[in-house]
C-alpha cells in the first residue's frame, strides 16, 4: 500500500512538474522537491538526507524535461541563443559552487534557501512590474558573470532548473516574458547536467541512502517522474503562449508564494 501511494505521488508530481516546466520555464523542481521530500519522509528515509535526495533527484528529472520544454519553445522562436552562449559557462561555475555548499550543510539549510528565494521571486512576479526593468539589457563587463553564477549556485541548492531565478533576471533586464521563459527552459539543462553529476559523487556510499539510489539521486523516483514530465511539458508551453504577459507573471508569482510557505514550514519545523 505504501509503495502504491508513493508511485501515485511520483506520477502526479511528474505531471504537474511537466506542465509547469513548459508554462513557467522552470524544470519542475520547485514542485518536485517539496513533494519528493514529503514522499521520502513517508517511506522512512533519514531526515538528515531527505532534502539532499529530493534536490538531487529533482535535478536529474530536469534533464529530459528541459530538453522537451526547450524544443517546444524553440519551435515558437522564443529562445535567446546569444544569452545562452554568454551565461552558460558561468552557470556551470555556479552549479559547482552550489554542489560544494550542499555537500557540507544539513537538509534544513537547503529548505530555508528554497523558501527565501521562492518568496522573494514571488513578490517580484506578482507585482504589476511587467514594464519595469533595472537595466536596458543583460549586464556585461565585470558584474555580468555574477548573475549567472548566482543562478547556477542557488538553483543547485534548491534542486530547480533555474527558471525561477533566470526568468526574473531576464525580465528585469528588459527581456520579454515569453522570451525569458523559453530561454530559461534551455538553461535548465545547463544547470541540471553538472549538478546531477555532483550530487551523485557527493552522496556516493552514504550508509542511509534508500533503495535504488546512485549517490543522492534516487533512480526509482527518476524513472517514474522523468517520463511523465517530458509528456506534459509541451502542454505547459502551449498554455504559456495562450496567456497574456500579465496573467503569466501573476500565475508565476502566486505559485511561488504557495511553495515558499510550504518549504518555510519544513525549514523551521
Structural overview:
The protein has 269 residues and is an all-alpha fold. The protein has one domain (2-268). Helices cover 75% and strands 1% of the residues. It contains 10 helices and 2 strands; from the N terminus they run ααααααααββαα. The chain has helices spanning 2-24, 29-42, 47-75, 81-102, 107-126, 146-158, 163-172, 177-202, 219-240, 245-268, and strands at 213-214, 217-218. Strands 1-2 form a two-stranded antiparallel sheet. A hairpin with a 2-residue loop joins strand 1 and strand 2. Helix 4 (81-102) crosses helix 6 (146-158) and helix 4 (81-102) runs parallel beside helix 8 (177-202). The radius of gyration is 17 Å and the shape is globular. The two termini are 28 Å apart. The relative contact order is 0.23.
